[in-house]
Amino acid sequence: MRFIFKTDYDQDIRILKHGGYWWSYGILLAALIALPFLVGSYLQSQVVFVFIYAIVGVALMILTGFTGQASLGHAAFLAIGAYTAAYLQKLGVPFIVYFPAAAILTGIVGAMVGFPALRLTGIYLVIATIAFAFIVEEILARWESVTHGNEGMRVRTLDIVGMPLPRDGEAFYFLCLLTLVGSIVLALNLLRSPTGRAFVAIRDSETAGKSMGIDLAAYKVKSFAISAAITGLAGVLFAHKMTFISPEMFTLLLSIEFIMVIIIGGAFGVHGAVFGAIFIVMVDPFLTALKDDVPVLAASVASSFGMASDAAAKLRDTMSSIGSAAGLKGAIYGLIIMMFILFEPYGLYGRWLKVKLFFQLFPLYKKATFKRQKTYVKSERNR
After folding, report:
1. DSSP string for 13-34
2. SS3 call for 192
3. How does pLDDT run across 202-234, given as a tens digit for each residue?
């Protein structure tokens, strides 16, 4: 059991609370650095998508987890970052210029979205962000002189000061890893700053935050801008990873996937963004296996137990048709969301905290430690 006796405020806001964090995160970082040299190109590509989704998850964590503002329009911010990179690259602008430029432009658009959303909360804010996503998708399809419309745009290989970084190479992998680490460090430092504490106060109770002198409008706009800017960085990496972008790639389903990242991972810690991204990225390989590998395996097992070849082939075709059914991915997403909301509202990160606390307090751990209280004070009814 580890007890940390804090003697000053700096210890309370320290990012790494004790030496154990240095060891654990150091080992994890070393493993991630060694990973591209130990695995094949397919697994490395999947890990890159985990990094990109995790960056968007960190951005959503700032907006939803810290500030309590829901959004189903982050696919639009990703699209703005991706198209900014593709267009400026076509004009001959170097990566070291259009990478931050995409973040700045996306942040400005995020602030513009934040202003009209100031008077909206809950489901109405969600509807407003969905409307924004539809508007951006329509602009991308109609503004053909810039975006090439539904034909899409090709994105050339990323180039840094004359050194190409192919999308399947180790250098691009490390660029995505560096961007993710930078986003996480930024979010952690933001959370322990006065701005981050104002975000959390707004999330917990807007009435209490306003009574303490917090400018709700200014901080909500800041939260939208910061979240959108980080998503714009992910959009640049996404465009170079896909090498081709079109409006059909940035749909509402993609925004739902980003929301699922923080629902599954946990919306109250940046670690949850990584957990959720791993979970979401693995859904597509799972569906592919469900459509191709599982039916063949089931048919072979059935044949080994004496099933006739015609019946085994029929079983394989039936399972394959189920695995490729339209809407299966959306149904799986809906089921996952319901299961997490009902049984683990704090996500995988919340479960990890419970497991860690169990070992910290063992054998004194109590089952009711995380039990939700049924009584509330009157001030909490105004949230």
Report:
1. T-SS-SHHHHHHHHHHHHHHHH
2. coil
3. 888 888 888 888 888 888 889 999 999 999 999
Say what the pTM is. 0.86
* 164: enclosing H helix or E strand: strand 163-165
Largest CA distance in the chain: 76
pLDDT in tens, 253-308: 888 888 888 888 876 777 778 888 888 888 888 888 888 888 888 888 888 887 78
Helix, strand, or coil (residue 2): coil
Which structure tokens are listed for 287? 């569906």
> Is the separation of the CB atoms in 228 and 117 below 8 Å?
no
Which domains are delineated in the chain?
33-279 (1.10.3470), 285-367 (no CATH)
**What does the alpha-carbon distance between residue 175 and residue 212 come to, in Å, rounded to a whole number?**
41
H or E element at residue 154:
strand 153-154
Q: How far apart are CA 347 and CA 341, in angstroms?
A: 8
For the record, the structure tokens of 189 come out as 């430092």
